[in-house]
Amino acid sequence: MASLKDFQLMFFLAVFATVAWLATAGDPDILTDFVVPPNSLNSTDGNLFTFTGMRGIFENLPSTFKVTKAAMAEFPVLNGQSVSMAVLQFPTEGLNPPHTHPRSAELLFLIEGCLEVGFVDTTNKLFVQNLQVGDIFVFPKGLVHYQYNADTKIPAIAISAFGSANAGTVSVPLTVFGTGISDGILAKAFKTDVATVQKIKAGLVPKP
Amino acid sequence: MASLKDFQLMFFLAVFATVAWLATAGDPDILTDFVVPPNSLNSTDGNLFTFTGMRGIFENLPSTFKVTKAAMAEFPVLNGQSVSMAVLQFPTEGLNPPHTHPRSAELLFLIEGCLEVGFVDTTNKLFVQNLQVGDIFVFPKGLVHYQYNADTKIPAIAISAFGSANAGTVSVPLTVFGTGISDGILAKAFKTDVATVQKIKAGLVPKP
Amino acid sequence: MASLKDFQLMFFLAVFATVAWLATAGDPDILTDFVVPPNSLNSTDGNLFTFTGMRGIFENLPSTFKVTKAAMAEFPVLNGQSVSMAVLQFPTEGLNPPHTHPRSAELLFLIEGCLEVGFVDTTNKLFVQNLQVGDIFVFPKGLVHYQYNADTKIPAIAISAFGSANAGTVSVPLTVFGTGISDGILAKAFKTDVATVQKIKAGLVPKP
Amino acid sequence: MASLKDFQLMFFLAVFATVAWLATAGDPDILTDFVVPPNSLNSTDGNLFTFTGMRGIFENLPSTFKVTKAAMAEFPVLNGQSVSMAVLQFPTEGLNPPHTHPRSAELLFLIEGCLEVGFVDTTNKLFVQNLQVGDIFVFPKGLVHYQYNADTKIPAIAISAFGSANAGTVSVPLTVFGTGISDGILAKAFKTDVATVQKIKAGLVPKP
Amino acid sequence: MASLKDFQLMFFLAVFATVAWLATAGDPDILTDFVVPPNSLNSTDGNLFTFTGMRGIFENLPSTFKVTKAAMAEFPVLNGQSVSMAVLQFPTEGLNPPHTHPRSAELLFLIEGCLEVGFVDTTNKLFVQNLQVGDIFVFPKGLVHYQYNADTKIPAIAISAFGSANAGTVSVPLTVFGTGISDGILAKAFKTDVATVQKIKAGLVPKP
Amino acid sequence: MASLKDFQLMFFLAVFATVAWLATAGDPDILTDFVVPPNSLNSTDGNLFTFTGMRGIFENLPSTFKVTKAAMAEFPVLNGQSVSMAVLQFPTEGLNPPHTHPRSAELLFLIEGCLEVGFVDTTNKLFVQNLQVGDIFVFPKGLVHYQYNADTKIPAIAISAFGSANAGTVSVPLTVFGTGISDGILAKAFKTDVATVQKIKAGLVPKP
User: Fold this and answer.
1) 3-state DSSP call for residue D165?
2) Residue A163's closest chain C neighbor by CA?
3) Chains touching chain A, criterion 3+ CB pairs below 8 Å
4) Which residues from A are below 8 Å from D1, CB to CB?
5) CB contact E7 to F (< 8 Å)
6) Which residues bind Mn(2+) per the record (chains A, B, C, D, E, F) (predicted)?
7) Residue A196 in contact with residue B204, Cβ under 8 Å?
8) SS3 at position F152
9) F28 to chain C: nearest residue by CA?
10) What Rg do the C-alpha atoms of chain F give, in angstroms?
11) Calpha distance B110→B97 (Å, rounded)
12) Pick from C31, C33, C38: CB nearest A26
C-alpha cells in the first residue's frame, strides 16, 4: 500500500515530469559535479550528501521481508550519480518474491545469516546459489530474481548496490496478479483455469 | 611499476578480449560506420545489410501466437546500430503472455486486426488499450506487458520496433513457473499453496 | 517552407529549450518508467501510450513519395524510450531523395511492392540492393541513403524503425541547394559552374 | 493551460538550470585508464600518448584545401577517450565542401586568416558566419556544414576538436555524385535533367 | 572501393580487437544478459555470479586502513553490469587519504563506528560530514575525497557501492609525491621549496 | 540447457569478438540539433554558434600560466555537443600544476614552444614526455596530469580539446591544501608533520 509519503512523492514526481519532462535527464554522467535538489538550496553543505534514513535499521527485525532504499526518491542528490543502495531484511523463512529492476543490475552483499538466491536468464535457465555471510552475488540487469532465507532460526540481512540512481522494481506476483489483468488472459498465459487465477488473485489482494 | 598481479590482470583481459563475447559489449554508437560480421568479409555488399528471413511471412497464419525476430542473432550487421524489429502474428484469441524486454522499449504497429495491449508500471498501475489497425502503442522499457487478440474471427498482425539490436525477452510464466524455482518459494511468493503451484507448473511444461 | 504546424512545433520546442534546456537530456535510459508530457496529466491512461495518427494510412496512395512519422514530435511519450517509427509510401517511380538521419540508424521493412535502396559509407563506397516484399534493410547511422520504387505499375510501402525517439532528417538536395548557400560556393564544391547551380536551385524551389 | 503552480515550477526549473546546469548528456567511459594498441606493448611510455604527425604542418601551405587528422586511425591510443583533433588549411579561396560528421559535433578554432562558415539544421535553416582570427564556431552533430576562405590574399588555418575518437566524414558532393548512384535517381532527387547530373559527375571524377 | 589504406586500417583494427583490452570498451548496457569470462565456460552456474572473497572479512581488524574490493578484476562477471562494491576498514585514527575514482561516484554506508568524510568540488569548496552508524554519504564522481576515523577507541567499517564495474582509484599523495614527478615541478606546484617536497617524498616511499 | 543453435551463436560471437571491428565507446546524442540557451532566443543566427572570447588572445603573453576556456559556461550552445576547447599559455618556466578533469580526456596540441607533460595512471605509473611544436598529447580521462614549460627563453602555447562540454578541473594543490581539510588529516595522508602541512598551506593561500 502506498503511504502518505509515497503519495507526496508521487505528486512531486508527477509535477516534476509534467512541466519539464525532467525524467529525460537519464542516468549518464552529469555535466556538473552534482545536482542540487530544489528544496536544499539554502543548505548546500555536507548534510545534502548524507542520507540518515537507515539509522537504527539493524536494531529492529521486521516480521516479514522488508526492503529499505537509499535511491533518488529518498536521497535526491543521487540524481546523476548513477548509484544507489538498499538494505534487505529477511526474518526466518522470509522471501523477497520474484522481481526485476528495469534500470540496473543488483549486487547483493550478505552481512548476516544465510540466503538462497536465484535468477533466470533470457534463455530460461535458472541460476541458484546458497550464500553465506560475506558472499556477494550479482543479479544481471533486467532479469527476474528472488532471495529466500530458508533458515528457521536465524534472520538474514543484505546490503545491495545498484548502478542507477533509480533502479526501479517490478514485483512479478503483484504486477501480474494484482493489477487487474483479466482472469481470462492470465488463465491463458499460465495455461491454467480461471478458478486458479482467481484463487491466486484473492491471496495477493490485501484484506480490508 | 606494474606488479605481477597487474600483469596477470593484463593477461587475463587480453585473453578475455580474444575469447569472450565482446562484440556484445554495449549498445552505444559504434566508432565505425558498421561492424562487418567475420564470415561476411568476402561479400561486403548490399546483401550484408539485407535480412530476407521475413519473406513470405504474411502468407501463412500460425495456429498459435508467433513472434519472428530480426535482431542481432538473426541479422548480425545490426550490431552497433541500436535498432531491431519483429513480426507478431496472433490467430484468433491468440495471446503473447506477460513478458519484459530487459534492454529496450517496444513500439508496436498494428497492421491487421484488433489487439488488446497492456502493461504495468513500477507503481503497479495497469495500462490497457484496445488497438485498431494503424494504431501504434509503446511499451516502456523493462516493464511487464502482454498483447491479446480477443477477436474470434479475425487474426491480428503487428510489426514491432526496438531501440536495441538485442532487446531480449523474459517470459513471465516460463521464467517463473517453468525453470525449476522450488514449489515452496513460489507458493510463498504468490501467497497460495504448493498444489496450485504444481498445477500451474504442470500446465506450462510441454508434454512429451 | 515551414508550415503553420512547423511553426507551432518550433515555438513549442523553443519554449521547451528556454525553460529547462531539457532537450539536452539525450537519448539514454530515463530514470522513470516513462515521461508524461505536460498536457496529458488528466488522462494518464492507455491513450497516452497510443498513437492514432497512422489510422487509415494504407487506404490512400499519395501521388508523390510521402513519409509519415511517429516520433517524439507527433507522439510525445516516446521521449526517453529511444525508439520511433515511420511509414514510407512510394507511388510508382517514387523517390525518397538522398538524406541522412543524424541521430539513428534506420531499419526498413518492405511490406508492399519492390524497392531499390542504397547508402554510401564514409569511404565513399555505394551499397545498393533491390528489395522484395518482406525484406528488411539497415541504413547505418549518419550515412547518406535513398530509396526508389523503380516499378512503373506497383506502389511500394515500407515501415521503418529508428533507435532514437527523434532521429531527425537532413535532405541532401534541399539542405545543399534549397537553403541559401551561395552559388559560388556550391559551384566550387560540386566542381561545376554557377549556371548549373542556379538551374538546380530553381528546380528545387517550389513555384508560387 | 499552464497553472500558476506550473509557472512557479517553470521558474524554479529555469533557476535550477542556471544554478546547476541540469544534468545533460555525458560522455561514456572506458573501464581502464586507457587502451594500449597491440603493437605498442613493448613501449608503454610517454611516446604511446604522443602524436607527432602534425610536426611542421604550419610550415607548408597546401595549394588546395587540406585536412590533417589526429583521430583513432592515426593515433590509436585515442580509442575510448572520446576526443580527436584536425588541422584545416585553406589557401586563398579554398573550400571545404559541404559534409557531415556522423559521430560528433565539430568545434573549429580559427588561428589564421578569415573564414566563412555555415551549416544547415534539420528544419533546413542555414546559419552562416564570417569568422576572424581567434573565433570558435560549433557545427552541431550530424548536420551538413562547409567552410570557405573568401579572401584572395591571406590563407586561413583552423584547428578543430571533435567529441569522438572517430567522428567520420561524409562529403556531400563525392557521396552523392561520385559513388555510382544512377543518373536517373539523381536527376529526380535534384529535380533536374540527366545531362546536368552527368555534367556534375564528370567534374567530380578525377581525370586519369 | 576500399583502398589499400582501408584494408590496412581494417587489418589493424582486426588485430586490435583480437589483442587489446577491448573488454574495457565501456560501461554501458551490454547486449547479452551477462558476459561469461573465458575460463568459466565449463561452469556457467550460480558460482559464476558469486564472489566469496569477502568471507570472514569482518572477523579481522586490520592495523591500518584497508580497502577490499569486489570489482571487475576480482569478480569478472561484473563486466557490463555497471556496479561494484568495496569494504573499507578503519582502525582507530585510520585514514583513507585524499583520492578520486575516475569512473564512478561512491556511495558509502557506515555500518560500524563513526567516520569523518569530506570531498572538494570543482569550485574548491570543501564538504565535510561526521557520519554515525547507518548513515550513507555520496562522493560525487571524479572529485577528491577522504575518510577518517577520528575515534581513538572504536574502529569503523563501511560498505561502498560504485556505479561502475571498475571505478578505479587515484591516490593523491602517492600519485603526486610517489611517482617521480620532479622535485622542482612539485615545489612550484605547491608553492613551496624543494626541501619540503623531498621531505614529503621520503615519508611516502616505503622503507626497504 | 543451451541448444545447438545457442552454441552456434556462442561460437559465432566468440569469432566475432576476435575478428570484427570491435566497436567501442560512443558519444551520446541530444534529441534536437542543438539547444538554444534561454537568453539567446532573439538571435538564433550564426552568432549563437560563435565564441569570440578568444579574439586577440595570442597577442598578449601572461606573466604566469593562464588557461582560457571555451566550454559550456562561456559558450552555452555547447550544451549537448560533447566537446569544448581551451587555450593554455605558458610563460617561460610556467607551470600548470597537477590536476584532473573529472568528465573528459584532454587532447593537447602544442602550437608554440616546448612543453614537458606528464600524467599518472591508476597503477601509479608516471608517463612523461617532452613535446615540440606540432605534437599532440592525450591525457586519459580522470587521471592526474601537469604541463611545464622548462624553457627559460621561449613561451609555450597549446590548444586543448575535451570530449565533454564541461570537463571540469580539480587542481590538486588547491583542492588538497587550499580548502580547509584539517592539518592533522593532511599530515597523516602525506606522512609528514603538521608544520610541513601548515607551511604548504601558507604558500598556497593568496596574501591579502
Assistant:
1) coil
2) C31
3) B, C, D, E, F
4) none
5) no
6) 99, 101, 106, 145
7) no
8) coil
9) C26
10) 23
11) 17
12) C31
CB distance from B33 to chain D under 8 Å?
A: yes
User: What is the tens place of the pLDDT at every residue in C81-105?
Assistant: 999 999 999 999 999 999 999 999 9
Interface contact flag, C20 A22, Cβ < 8 Å: yes
pLDDT at E162 over 50: yes
Q: Is B124 annotated as a binding residue?
A: no
Predicted confidence at residue C90, as pLDDT, reads 98
Cβ(E197)–Cβ(E187) under 8 Å?
yes
Cell of C157: 510501402
C-alpha cell of A181? 489483468
Q: Do B19 and F18 touch (CB under 8 A)?
A: yes
Amino acid at site E138: V
Residue B24 confidence (pLDDT):
25
List, in sequence order, the alpha helices (H) in F157-193: 172-177, 183-189
B 173-202 → C contacts, CB under 8 A:
none
Q: What 3-state DSSP class applies to C11?
A: helix
Q: Is E96 annotated as a binding residue?
A: yes
pTM: 0.86
At C27, is the pLDDT very low, low, confident or very high (cuts 50, 70, 90)? very low
Question: Under a CB-based contact definition with an 8 Å cutoff, are residues A72 and A165 in contact?
Answer: yes
Beta strands in E134-200 (DSSP E): 136-139, 144-148, 156-162, 170-171
Contacts of A126 in chain B (CB under 8 A): 179-181
Please indicate if any CB of chain A lies within 8 Å of the CB of C144.
no
Residue E195 has a CB neighbour count (10 Å cut-off) of: 11
- The pLDDT score that the predictor gives to residue D41 is 58
Q: Do D32 and E18 touch (CB under 8 A)?
A: no
The SS3 assignment for F68 reads strand
Q: Cell 576515523 maps to which residue? A: E149
Neighboring chain E residues of D80 at a CB cutoff of 8 Å: 24-26
Neighbours of C, requiring at least 3 CB pairs below 8 Å, are A, B, D, E, F
Contacting partners of chain F (3+ CB pairs under 8 A): A, B, C, D, E
Collect all residues of chain D within an 8 Å Cβ-Cβ radius of residue B13: 32
In chain E, residues with a C-beta closer than 8 Å to the C-beta of D30 are 24-27
Report helix angle D194-204 to C194-204, nearest 10.
Answer: 140
Percent of chain C clearing pLDDT 70 (strictly above): 83
Question: At residue F90, what is the residue type?
Answer: F
**Separation CA A121–CA C145 (nearest Å):** 38
Q: Cα angle vertex B85, ends B82, B89, to 5°?
A: 160
Burial group, residue E146, by CB count within 10 angstroms (0-12, 13-18, 19+): buried
In this structure, what are the phi and psi dihedrals at residue B13, rounded to the nearest 5 degrees? -65, -35
User: Would you call E144 and F199 a contact, using CB atoms and an 8 Å cutoff?
Assistant: no
Q: How many CA atoms lie within 13 A of D81 on its CB side?
A: 33
Q: Residues E111, E58: contact at Cβ < 8 Å?
A: no
Alpha carbons D201 and D180: distance in angstroms, whole number: 9
The DSSP 8-state label assigned to residue F89 in this structure reads E
- Cα–Cα distance, D25 to D23 (Å, whole number): 7
Q: Name the residue in chain E with its Cα closest to that of F116.
A: E185
Task: Give the distance from residue F77's alpha carbon to the nearest chain D alpha carbon, in angstroms.
Answer: 8
Contact C111, C133 (CB under 8 A): yes
Mean pLDDT for C56-78 is 95
* D47 part of contact set with chain F, CB < 8 Å: yes
The neighbour count for residue B64, using CB atoms within 10 Å, is 10
DSSP state of A158: E
Q: What are the residue ranges of helices labelled H in chain A?
A: 4-20, 172-177, 183-189, 194-204
State which amino acid sits at residue E79: N
